TrEMBL record:
Keywords: DNA damage, DNA repair, DNA replication, Hydrolase, Magnesium, Metal-binding, Mutator protein
PANTHER family membership: 8-OXO-DGTP DIPHOSPHATASE, NUDIX HYDROLASE FAMILY PROTEIN
UniProt keyword annotation of Hydrolase present: yes
Cofactor(s) the record lists: Mg(2+)
High-level lineage: Bacteria, Bacillati, Actinomycetota, Actinomycetes, Micrococcales
Documented EC number(s): 3.6.1.55
Catalysed reaction, written as an equation: 8-oxo-dGTP + H2O = 8-oxo-dGMP + diphosphate + H(+)
Name this polypeptide is given: 8-oxo-dGTP diphosphatase
GO molecular function: 8-oxo-7,8-dihydrodeoxyguanosine triphosphate pyrophosphatase activity; 8-oxo-7,8-dihydroguanosine triphosphate pyrophosphatase activity; 8-oxo-dGDP phosphatase activity; 8-oxo-GDP phosphatase activity; metal ion binding
Positions of the Nudix hydrolase domain: 3-141
Entry superkingdom: Bacteria
Family according to the record: Belongs to the Nudix hydrolase family.
Length: 141
């Protein structure tokens, strides 16, 4: 049996009801991803539920507490394929406490308008592009 590395990501939006903006985060490492934009998040730890892992990662990386909204359901049970060995589940999320700051793993954050052209021209990690499209569609933009 092959084990897929489970990654979780947060699509932080300005409001779960009627989202208009997404928080994109620019990675600092590893070199092949440095400078690319992504959904903040990371690896789920052994014995940890996916949602709990996402709350933990968002607190560590951005210093925020969030309420999770709907999952942006991907094509596999592990979510959206990233590489042959890793996949990411992604939830919409809204900040309930704190102001997002690039504390760990990122050197910039930006709120991008879901209905504007810029969301598609940001240099996302390539594997994230279908997720970005799904988010735009899911939020009705
Ligand atoms: N967090 C995140 N990782 C992504 C995205 N797209 C994508 O291909 N990845 C890849 C990059 C990494 O190889 C892997 C996530 O690992 P990570 O480095 O963020 O996880 P982590 O913070 O738990 O890592 P670590 O420090 O424990 O090694 O998934 C994305 O949108 N968000």
């Amino acid at each position: 049996m092959t084990t897929i590395k489970q990654i979780v990501g947060g699509a932080l939006v300005d409001a779960l009801e009627n989202p208009t903006k997404l928080l994109a985060a620019r990675r600092t490492a590893p070199p092949e991803f440095a400078g690319m934009w992504e959904f903040p998040g990371g690896k789920v730890e052994a014995g940890e539920a996916a949602e709990a892992g996402l709350h933990r990662e968002l607190a560590e990386e951005l210093g925020v507490s969030v309420t999770l909204g709907a999952e942006l359901v991907g094509p596999t049970s592990a979510g959206w394929p990233l590489t042959a060995g890793a996949a990411m589940r992604v939830w919409l999320a809204q900040v309930t406490d704190g102001t997002p700051a690039p504390l760990e793993d990122h050197d910039a954050l930006q709120w991008v308008v879901l209905s504007g052209p810029e969301i598609r021209t940001l240099p996302w990690i390539p594997a994230d592009l279908p997720i970005v499209e799904a988010l735009i569609a899911f939020t009705g933009h």
